[in-house]
Write a structure and sequence with these properties.
The chain has 156 residues and is an all-alpha fold. The protein has one domain. The protein is 72% helix and 3% strand. The chain has a two-stranded antiparallel ribbon with strand order 1-2. Strand 1 and strand 2 form a beta hairpin. Helix 1 runs antiparallel to helix 3, helix 2 crosses helix 3 and helix 3 packs antiparallel against helix 4. The protein starts with a helix and ends with a helix.
């Protein structure tokens, strides 16, 4: 294996661990409190109330599964595509809340709901999620990485 290929594989591992770890952490912090997760989604006031509740209940489990797949390096390209798309949806959600003057916590790592105006962190949250989406984009372009189950099980 050439040195440049090893470097690219290491970057892939880093991208998997960053995006996958973030999803695992976010989902893991919310999975024990589905009511709070549902309230966080409802606070964005984008989806019908009942649909937002179901999204809030299901989102933590989806994040945990996607995060685990990415950390393990299994079905990397598909997992990265879904993870990156999820991050884009989060960016759009946060941006629209900011543009509409809502004062909410994003609920990304638990919490969520109304906060004081000086407690919002929209810009930082958007930059963070764009960074996570870029990790997913890297893995879409080049899903091969070190220590991935894809490599061992599927020869990729």
């Amino acid at each position: 294996m050439r040195a440049s290929s090893r470097v690219l594989d290491a970057v892939g591992l880093l991208a998997r661990l960053i995006l996958g770890g973030a999803l695992l952490l976010a989902g893991g912090l919310k999975v024990g409190n589905p009511v709070a997760s549902a309230r966080a989604v409802q606070a964005y006031d984008v989806l019908p109330f009942e649909l937002a509740r179901y999204v809030g209940y299901g989102l933590p489990y989806a994040e945990v599964v996607l995060g685990a797949l990415l950390v393990l390096g299994l079905f990397t390209r598909v997992s990265a595509a879904i993870g990156a798309l999820l991050m884009v949806v989060f960016v759009v959600g946060i941006a629209q809340a900011w543009a509409r003057g809502l004062t909410i916590d994003c609920g990304c790592f638990g919490g969520g709901g109304q906060v004081a105006e000086n407690e919002t962190k929209y810009g930082r949250e958007i930059v963070r999620d764009i960074g996570f989406a870029l990790c997913g984009a890297w893995l879409l372009w080049r899903p091969q990485s070190m220590l991935s189950l894809d490599r061992y099980l599927l020869g990729r």
